[in-house]
Structures are given as structure tokens and as C-alpha cells.
């Protein structure tokens, strides 16, 4: 298991090609918790579909313990979500893996619903790191969204083909 190669979104030279299946826009690799010390499997290949959603839904998540006493346990490790080259901060839309059925996840955790926004934040079922995405309980379309740049990917298949 320790031999598996995990990559973040920003590690890919051409994520749109390397992460997405060409024919149906689904995730081409298994998706894992971004914390290397955890590595929980979250979603198997081709269970998510790439979509764009407004960035503001996860722009200011409840990551302060004092403001979210009933929410999920906050991670002790700090993850810098935008440790690339700052490109993502200027985008108005963010790309997510969309699921319409929460049972399609291998492992996943949810925060309690935030009353003001109707959002449930998605986190790792094992270590509670998050938010990795969200579920909008007020949305007309029922969907669960995992931010493409907040998770890790097992790309051992890509490495064997010398693409990465
Ligand atoms: Zn985890």
C-alpha cells in the first residue's frame, strides 16, 4: 500500500486529460484522502463526473473550531489547498467530481448542515480532514461534490505508461 503513488491535482501537467476519461468525463483514477498519513479510499474510478460549480460554496468553509462546535472534528494537519501557483484563486468556478448517490462513495464523512447556507461539508471518513467538497441540501439537483484539487489520486497506471 505504501508503494502506491499518490498525486495531487496540481502535480499533473495536463489534469484535464490525465484525470478525466476521454469518453464520458469521469474520474480516471481512484480518489483518496489528501493526507498521506491517512490515505483513505474515498471514491473509485469512474464514479464521479467532472462538473463546474461556483467557487463561493467552499470559499469560506467552517474551518474554525470555535465557530463550529457541532461540526466535524478539525484536522490537526494544515493542508494548503492552493499551494500551486495561485491560479485557482482567481477562478470564479471550481471543478468538482459530481456524484448523485452518496452510496457511490467508498468512504466519506459529512458535517452537520450549516443552517444559513443549507450546505453539508464533505470530509474524510477516517481522519475528518476537510472540507473536500459539499452537498447543498437546498439545491434542486441532488448532488455530492468533491473538489478536484482537494483530494489525491492513485496514478500508478499512469506511471507505468510514463505519462506523469
Ligand atoms: Zn483521511
From TrEMBL:
InterPro entries: Mss4, Mss4-like_sf, Mss4/transl-control_tumour. Keywords: Guanine-nucleotide releasing factor, Protein transport, Transport. GO terms for cellular component: cytosol; membrane. One of its GO terms (biological process) is small GTPase-mediated signal transduction. Residues 53-89 are annotated as: Disordered. SUPFAM superfamilies: Mss4-like. It holds the Pfam family Mss4. Residues 69-89 have a biased composition (Polar residues). Residues 53-68 have a biased composition (Basic and acidic residues). It comes from the Eukaryota. One of its GO terms (molecular function) is zinc ion binding. The keyword Transport applies. PANTHER family: GUANINE NUCLEOTIDE EXCHANGE FACTOR MSS4 (PTHR13276:SF0). This is Mss4-like protein.
Amino acid at each position: 500500500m505504501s508503494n502506491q503513488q499518490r498525486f495531487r491535482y496540481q502535480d499533473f501537467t495536463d489534469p484535464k486529460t490525465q484525470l478525466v476519461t476521454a469518453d464520458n468525463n469521469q474520474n480516471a483514477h481512484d480518489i483518496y484522502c489528501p493526507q498521506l498519513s491517512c490515505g483513505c479510499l474515498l471514491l473509485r474510478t469512474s464514479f464521479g463526473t467532472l462538473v463546474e460549480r461556483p467557487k463561493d460554496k467552499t470559499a469560506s468553509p467552517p474551518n474554525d473550531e470555535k465557530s463550529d462546535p457541532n461540526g466535524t472534528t478539525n484536522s490537526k494537519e494544515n493542508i494548503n489547498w492552493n499551494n500551486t501557483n495561485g491560479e485557482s484563486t482567481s477562478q470564479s468556478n471550481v471543478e468538482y467530481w459530481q456524484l448523485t448517490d452518496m452510496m457511490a462513495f467508498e468512504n466519506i464523512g459529512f458535517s452537520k448542515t450549516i443552517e444559513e447556507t443549507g450546505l453539508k461539508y464533505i470530509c474524510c471518513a477516517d481522519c475528518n480532514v476537510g472540507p473536500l467538497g459539499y452537498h447543498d441540501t437546498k439545491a434542486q439537483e441532488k448532488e455530492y461534490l468533491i473538489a478536484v484539487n482537494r483530494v489525491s489520486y492513485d496514478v500508478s497506471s499512469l506511471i507505468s505508461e510514463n505519462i506523469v
